């Protein structure tokens, strides 16, 4: 019996089961295929679950159906612009109305950043996207990802 107890004490503990919230859920609303591919590469981490949509209406539809921790939002989306999406989210009176929104901003949209920030866009990053800048912005919004290997 003593040998069994010693063996039990030495044996490694089984890994704790992973809960569904051990990763960060990111909704990427970006109509440009190239930028979606870049984001897929830059955000590749076992700690991130990323779902992509190509227009603003699809982003809203998915937010209604699923839970997310962060929205990466192109401001020049078809069907509903990034501005429309920000407005809808912030005025939605839902539990996720305060979700962090990181705007993905083309040169021609930079003049509207102040307006979008005042409407509720949390932060923004200019395109083309660079790994270090994107990582810094995401970690500021989602501090738990500081060690996610981005």
Describe the structure.
Helix 3 (56-65) packs parallel to helix 4. Mean pLDDT is 87; it is low at 4-20. With 150 residues, the chain is of the alpha/beta class. The protein has helices at residues 2-10, 33-42, 56-65, 82-90, 113-119, 131-141; strands at residues 24-29, 48-53, 70-74, 101-105, 123-126.
For this entry, give a set of tags.
150 residues, alpha/beta, five-stranded parallel sheet, 6 helices, 5 strands, globular
| Arrangement of strands in the largest sheet | 2-1-3-4-5
Number of helices: 6
The largest sheet is: 5 strands, parallel
Regions with pLDDT < 50 over 5+ consecutive residues?
4-20
Net shape: globular
What is the terminal separation in angstroms?
48 Å
Total number of beta strands? 5
Q: Beta fraction of the residues?
A: 15-25%
Structural class: alpha/beta
What is the mean pLDDT?
87
What is the string of SSEs from the N terminus onward? HEHEHEHEHEH
Task: Estimate percent helicity.
Answer: 25-40%
Q: Any idea what the radius of gyration is?
A: 19 Å
Give a brief description.
This protein is of the alpha/beta class and 150 residues long.
What is the element layout, followed by pairings?
Blueprint: H1 2-10, E1 24-29, H2 33-42, E2 48-53, H3 56-65, E3 70-74, H4 82-90, E4 101-105, H5 113-119, E5 123-126, H6 131-141
